[in-house]
């Protein structure tokens, strides 16, 4: 299934708009990742553990979005918007959401 942030699919005609679809994932940051991230903040560098968690959460949210679009019989999801938000007590969780419009292509 085509997934794009653009409002159309280049070279393809949209024949039907099937509705808004979405995906949400909330992940908790565990204490070991927090500890290693704190060390990285002090000595510099990237936090691979957090980057891996963010990547996995984004992939899961997009998979949920695609699954919802497939249930509607969509060929593509256009106008996808990804958002990241820290939530929970002391920012202990990360929420990744995505939404877009499921469409049929001619």
UniProtKB/TrEMBL annotation:
<dbReference type="Pfam" id="PF01906">
    <property type="entry name" value="YbjQ_1"/>
</dbReference>
<dbReference type="InterPro" id="IPR035439">
    <property type="entry name" value="UPF0145_dom_sf"/>
</dbReference>
<comment type="similarity">
    <text>Belongs to the UPF0145 family.</text>
</comment>
<dbReference type="InterPro" id="IPR002765">
    <property type="entry name" value="UPF0145_YbjQ-like"/>
</dbReference>
<protein>
    <recommendedName>
        <fullName>UPF0145 protein NDO55_11440</fullName>
    </recommendedName>
</protein>
């Amino acid at each position: 299934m085509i997934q794009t942030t653009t409002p159309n699919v280049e070279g393809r005609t949209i024949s039907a708009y099937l509705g808004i679809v979405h995906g949400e994932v909330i992940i908790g940051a565990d204490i070991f990742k927090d500890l290693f991230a704190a060390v990285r903040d002090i000595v510099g560098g990237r936090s691979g553990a957090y980057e891996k968690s963010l990547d996995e959460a984004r992939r899961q949210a997009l998979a949920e979005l695609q699954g919802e679009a497939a249930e509607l019989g969509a060929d593509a999801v256009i106008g996808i918007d990804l958002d990241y938000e820290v939530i929970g007590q002391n920012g202990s969780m990360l929420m990744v959401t995505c939404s877009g419009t499921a469409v049929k292509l001619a």
